[in-house]
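LOG
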Amino acid sequence: MKLNLPIIAFKLADRKPNLHLCTNHGNNLLSARLLSPGIVHFDPYAVYIGTAEEIRTIDQASLPSDVIVVGEEAAQALSETECNWLSFEEGDVPEIFNAVQQVFDFYNQIDSELYDAVMQEQDIQSLLDICSRFFDNPVHLVDSSLRLIAHSSELDDDIHDESWMEMLSTGYASVTVIDALKKANLLDELNRGREAMLVNLGGFILPYMSANIFAHDKRIVSICVREHSHHLEEAQLGLLDHVATVLTNVIAKRQNLHYLHLGYVERIMLDLIKGNSVDTGILRFGLSQIGWNVEDSYYLLKIIPDFKDVSGGTIEYTGAMIKNLFSGSILLSLSDVLVLIVNLKYCTKALPNIFGTLETFLCKRKFKCGVSLKSHDLSALHGQYMLAAAAIKNGTLIEKDKYLFFYENYVASHILELCAKMIDVRILCHPEALKLYEHDQKNEGTLLYTLYVYLMKEKSLVMASQELNIHRNTLVYRLSKISEIIDADLNDGNTRLHLIFSYEILRYLDYFK
């Protein structure tokens, strides 16, 4: 395999080499050769090893691009040249040549084993076990949602690394690490970069290297090396790029098969969300493959990420964290928007607590989430998606500080939004509601809202006063005041409904106009 001078210097660090680079030090060296005066043409894929005296006999313009010089005047002999060089002040040429050759042999042996394992289609963990020997450190894979896919055998519970232990327990990259990467403005480069990176965030987070594997210009997997047994150096980045290249076709093939196997239902659901028609028989068959039925009860959640997650490439990661809250759910991606289909037969009893946890999570991450109505027809995903979107739109305007919006709380404002496109909805208000609204505007009062709560609580003085957070006697006084201003029969069901809806209309006009 191809190496470079930084890798050789790293491997022979105990000999205290002096490294000098003039040009790009990508992996391009296949062998080591002895420098001799008779050489006319130098192999561009070889590093030449000789003494300072031998270097001086060669015209500087003719020197090979990579040289290792041995002896006390090693560094001085090459100080003004334009080649990449490595110098050793101690030892002789045969000794250094053998040491460098052993470096090539070491990596070539591992590389040969890796290629053999790939050709034999060995399992991922076996491949990673071989990869870990390149670095003398454990290796693991994460997918585009930062979900742990596989790891080498050394990565077990004996490793004292808090971020790794969190990944083992949750199956996903540590939230602490993600937040630290965001703070350091490294997420975008790390997720989209085409070359390996060494990440050192400090604190209790151990350094690690990461290289991305792409398929059709989309990152599908990242291969990571954790600093555990030995110190990581930037010189090893070229090795990680090489490993990523070897594994690219293997990973892409296996990820594609995984997608074809598990993505059938997801593709059907994406079609339904987009409003495309899907044959009922196809839908039923697809759902049966994952234990679902068309008639199952479900919620649809539309999730709008924070722009930092969009630019940082962590949408899928955060979406996966949300998905983990809802057992048996399906996560879909629509450009920069996430959609979660929650089948209620898997989590109905725990749902209130789950939504509480979700709201806390959304607030921390600055995500907006709309929840559709409960539905019993999975073929109606497009309509439910529109309701979840309406919940976000209406909820954000009415309750600006919230992050979780249930459509059932915004039904009236959504209906009014639709009606407002055709008529002036104010004309639909009950005249007495308008009279009370105008009185409140003049006197900065809340009598219309008091009446609304009283009617919504079915004229219960106790429940209404609790909702308004006022004393029962205060509510009685306000109702008496209201009866002086308006003339409406609150015992009539139609009147009560009209007054309630009138409040919704006027609230809508206050927020949306």
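LOG (cont.) second protein
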Amino acid sequence: ELGNARGVSIAVKNPNGSANAASDGISHNLEWIAPDSGIYYIVISAPAQLRDGIGTYTVKVEAETSLNDRHGDTPNGATQIGYGNAVAGAISPVNDLDYFSFQSRRGVRYTFAMDYGTTSGVSLTVRGNTTGQEVLASNFGEGSDVTWISPDDGTYYAVVSKSPRLTSAIGTYNLTIDSDYALEDRHRDIPTWATQIGFGNAIAGAISPTDDYDYFSFPGERDETYTLQVHLGTATAVRFSVVNYATGFSASNYGSGTMIRWTAPITGNYVLVLSAADQAADPVGTYQVVLTRGGNAVSPPPPATQAPTPTPEPVPTPTPQPTPVPVATPTPVAIPTDAILTVESRTAPPGATVLVPVRLEEAREINSLEFNLFYNPSIAEIVNVHQGSRTSTTSFSYNAEIPGVIRFGTTAARDVNADGSAAVVEFRIIGERGSSSPITLADSAVGDSRGRLRTINLVPGSLTVDDTIAGDGNGDGNITAIDALIALRMFVGLAEEDLAMDVNNDGQVTPDDARQLLAMARQG
């Protein structure tokens, strides 16, 4: 503000004396955006336009902190972002790049939504973690959303920068990443890691990404007839086949229809393969698969012969006609609309322990439950197995003597009619960073209070070896109220302190971190 001086020249200079911005005496106000964090100098002098530049003035500096560059310009300085939580940012200065890192899972569809504040548009790209930082998806500098399906598990980056379509793009924004885990690729792409499938149980899966192959295996018996029924969810068509590698036997729907039936030529292992149908406009989508066996194959009845025409002499004895033998047709098991047994996916770094819940949902009048859980023993080892909240009033048993499989059994004195965990498995991570293990369910048997056998939907999960996002205490990939509780347990000494929960970066886990996590969870 000018006192009795008629004008001033204002300049902002670096410590080496070079100028960043200057008013050149034309105005006594100067707006400037800092290109980097550091110390700068304000230099006031008499403008060259005035003969007499002597006089008084007052300097007042105001900062618009909403444009503060809070996010790094490179992958090494990327801000970790959780799902469903809005993160504020700003394009400032004009050449600014804001990097956000997130842990993806193969097949999951991610939506990156921009909510514009003072800027009217940005360039939003999804990039890989390779040296060249390949652009995998983009909004091309216009619009507000980008949708992308992850081709692999791992770390990826959302990068926000100036839109090339705008003259002035400086301003604020909010970025939110949402995930559609229904499309997660829970079944491996190679036969040796095929998901074991039982008879009569609906197993959920998804064709995602488009080049996905889902393998299932089961032991077949010679001359037994089997039926494979695929119930389409969001997928419009699926190609599926059954293969026995020992004999070269195969049968397929060739992408058309939802059922095939075949007779096993030998006793041995059979593999089911599901992939995208060529005729589907959008091959990505969910499905459920049910395998049933219908008894031994029955040969078709011999054709009936025409009775001979009688003649006066001699009269032949009529030939008895063979009685047609009815062919037993196996009836595909209907998809149950109630009970679901789900393995929750988790992420944890090497050497860490992680709790993996097996959830029982939509349970009605269930009083007995048996199932097997399969995992890769080279990725994780069992520390303990805990009884779940929905089996707390039941007789609960398990057997984990064989690495790679846990066998569970529960019986209840009264019916289970609510959602909750059937069991919780505590794993220690022994695999290398970047590796993962599918966690699948099979061989289930469910009974109700009326003595009837019931079917149940089996939904597998996965265990990924990698760092979790900041504040994600249970490794589920999201910031929730549970993470705030985990931070409080660390503060009072009920759990070992993990600085990944130090979201305010003060070097320790405190109630302030819990409050901030709870606020983040409410935003999501």
